[in-house]
Amino acid sequence: MTGQRLAAWWAALVAALLLGGCGYNDFQRLDEQVKAAWAEVLNQYQRRADLIPNIVATVKGEANFEQETLTKVIEARSKATSIQATPELINNPEAFQKFQAAQGELGSALSRLMVTVERYPDLKANQAFQDLRVQLEGTENRITVARNRYVKAVNDYNVLARSFPTNLTAMVFSYAVKPNFTVQNEAQISAPPAVSFDKPAAPAAAASR
Length: 209
Known about the structure:
Layout: H1 2-21, H2 24-60, H3 67-82, H4 93-117, H5 121-124, H6 127-162, H7 166-172, H8 183-190
Helix pairs in contact: 2-3, 2-6, 3-4
């Protein structure tokens, strides 16, 4: 009985050493970092989605505002929020890219909306709308930071999953390479939608005769 216990103890010790040396613990740590980073990305996306109804309601109050631009924002938000953002999404490349494409469309629609607003001085002067723009700008910045952190976390994880000998551990424990933002996505990360508060340029003075 003592011999069996000793053998079991040695087996457990060897297993612990092997798991520690082959990157198992690193996989656990980096996987949790990826999950946490993704949760923050989703949190900021949701924050942006929650702002849009108030922005739309304020813009609707402007007479003769371009309805096509507004409709595209509403449709893009509906599409983006219709995709269920589960934690498993980051392990499904196809679903991940679909989700990111929808978020990208929403970001583009919002950018076009803000450009269009520049042609409506009364709306630009609306304090409620300006407050919403400040919140949107802050949210876009937070999205940029959160996505950069996610990119870094996934890169660290994927390097471990692809490197030898930790790639063997990945195979044994099913630690698959995780999808990340595409090159186009990363370009968008470095250039978040601008929210300008510049006043319209004053008309040029009439030339003296």
